[in-house]
Design goal:
By secondary structure, this protein is of the alpha+beta class. The chain is 16% helix and 27% strand. It folds into 2 domains: 156 residues, Sandwich (Immunoglobulin-like), CATH 2.60.40; 287 residues, 4-Layer Sandwich (Purple Acid Phosphatase, chain A, domain 2), CATH 3.60.21. The strands form 4 sheets. Strands 5-4-3-12-13-14 form a 6-stranded mixed β-sheet. Strands 6-7-8-9-11-10 form a 6-stranded mixed β-sheet, covered by helices on one side. A 5-stranded antiparallel β-sheet has the order 2-1-19-16-15, with no helix packed on it. Helix 4 links the parallel strand 4 and strand 5.
């Protein structure tokens, strides 16, 4: 998906942030106004928590074609729990935004997710899969044919004793309605279930518009069921299953994206043991903002179809669906242990491996112990640069654009090793300056935000982007790393170079 922008004009400078550089990936800035499209992106890297930490402890960096390591994802709290005989008592496969239709891609991905959930469960000491929890948008249009396809595939994949806990999404209203959905799937759109002593409450929207009170009609139902579940056992987590997240909770539900619904927040926060499982945003669930805690807990459950990234506001990033995003899908294996603690392990379908991170809720309802709070926007760790990291610059001659005295066009590839952050490196700000000989000072030409392909389990280690200059001036590029919570690295990477008949590095 591409987003067209108005034409821009800058003096003697061009900026590219794509490694393959087909024409439609190029952001052109020159002496004349030129219309352009947002590039498909640099989309370099990012890694998660332990994996990134492990990588940084390694003795040497890999080449720019290397990818970050993929160790098995089992957290220390799991081994400690096993030793304490705090064994698993319930397991669910939680997925969202399947968008099942006739295309082979979504169907194959859904089948693989079901197959893995079964195989993983059978390989564990607690070998049961208690439920498939699908958090809405199981189909792309909600038609009878698509709903029947979803039901058939889920029923074929479910083993005896595995429940299906389902709610509607906004896409179920494109060519369908609640009555059709309930009749084909054989479940109620709004319902309460009990599994292994734990309560699940499903809530479906009344229509497909998240900004027009999709859950207002169900507030009374939700409050009644929450009260009943809470009275039954006020110490156990209550799982609420809904498609459109409550605003403002998980990533994408709040400004500037506003993909959340304002209806449910006040009701949910009356019950601190609530664990709200949501979808809709398509945001990568390994983004730490997809875990949120205030007076209740909420998780964004990723997507099996087309990753989407938030704009982050202030013109930083756009919402892109890159061609690469079509190949990636994520879902949770959620396990509850005997002490009611909850672990969510995130599985990546593209690499068929777990991310090296888990979300962990030690005690739902113990608000003072919550760690996934909004304090992270102020107090979380800033990105840091690996010792010795520098920006490397090299000529990049494109076909038909070799340097000559009249055209004065050359291209420079800049690359650097990814920054590290305990949470996530969201991306980078590239500030580009040109030296003005007359003013004897640096003039700012362009600021551009580079994506970090942090939703990938197999992300490259090195960021690359392309600059194109149309004169023999001196240039300076400064790179600042940004965390998921938009905190900036204290240090910047910097490089200076001069474009002449050959590239001259000045620093």
């Amino acid at each position: 998906m591409y987003f067209s922008y108005n034409s821009l004009e800058f003096d003697s400078f061009r900026f590219y942030n794509s490694t393959s550089l087909p024409d439609h990936n190029v952001l052109r800035l020159g002496r004349k106004e030129r219309k352009f499209r947002r590039p498909r992106a640099v989309f370099p890297e990012r890694q998660l928590m332990t994996t990134r930490r492990t990588f940084l402890k390694s003795s040497a960096a890999a080449s720019f074609t290397a990818v970050l390591p993929r160790p098995a994802s089992f957290a220390k709290n799991e081994s400690d729990a096993d030793l304490a005989e705090n064994d698993v008592v319930m397991r669910c496969c939680v997925m969202s935004d399947v968008h099942l239709e006739a295309s082979p891609r979504e169907l194959e991905r859904f089948r693989r997710a079901i197959r893995f959930a079964n195989e993983y469960s059978e390989s564990q000491p607690y070998d049961k899969l208690d439920a498939f929890v699908v958090v809405g948008d199981m189909t792309h249009h909600g038609s009878k044919e698509q709903l029947e396809l979803f039901k058939n595939e889920l029923d074929l994949g479910r083993k005896p004793g595995t429940d299906a806990i389902l709610c509607m999404g906004n896409h179920e209203y494109i060519k369908g309605n609640r009555e059709l959905w309930e009749s084909v799937l054989g479940v109620k759109a709004n319902a309460r279930y009990e599994r292994n002593g734990y309560q699940f409450i499903t809530v479906s929207p009344e229509h497909g518009n998240s900004n027009d009170g999709p859950y207002l009609y169900a507030i009374e139902f939700l409050e009644k069921e929450l009260e009943a579940a809470y009275r039954q056992d006020p110490t156990k987590p209550i799982f609420v299953v809904q498609h459109i997240p409550a605003q403002p909770t998980v990533y994408g539900s709040y400004e500037p994206d506003d993909w959340g619904a304002v209806d449910l927040f006040d009701t949910l926060q009356k019950y601190p043991t609530v664990v709200d499982l949501t979808g809709h945003t398509h945001c990568p669930a390994n983004d730490p903002r997809c875990a949120w805690q205030g007076r209740f807990t909420a998780f964004g459950c990723g997507t099996l179809s087309e990753m989407c990234l938030g704009t982050e506001g202030d013109g930083r990033f756009g919402v892109w669906l890159l061609p690469e995003s079509l190949e990636y899908g994520q879902f949770f294996m959620m396990e509850v242990r005997r002490d009611d603690s909850i672990t969510l392990k995130l599985y990546d379908l593209a690499t068929e491996s777990f991310f090296d991170m888990v979300y962990y809720v030690g005690k739902a309802g113990d608000i003072d112990s919550y760690v996934y709070t909004n304090d992270r926007f102020v107090n979380s760790e800033k990105p840091t640069w690996r010792e010795g990291t520098k920006i490397k610059a090299r000529p990049n001659w494109r076909e038909g654009t070799s340097f000559d005295a009249t055209q004065k066009r050359t291209f420079v590839t800049l690359e650097f090793t990814q920054a590290y952050c305990k949470d996530v490196v969201r991306g980078y700000r590239a500030d580009v300056k040109r030296y003005d000989e007359n003013a004897n000072d640096w003039v700012e030409l362009e600021t551009r935000y580079l994506e970090s392909e942090y939703f990938k389990r197999d992300m490259p280690e090195t960021v690359r982007f392309i600059l194109g200059a149309v004169d023999d001036a001196r240039y300076r590029v400064e790179i600042t790393a940004l965390s998921a919570f938009l905190l900036e690295s204290d240090e910047k990477l910097s490089v200076e170079f001069k474009i002449s008949p050959q590239l001259m590095l000045l620093s």
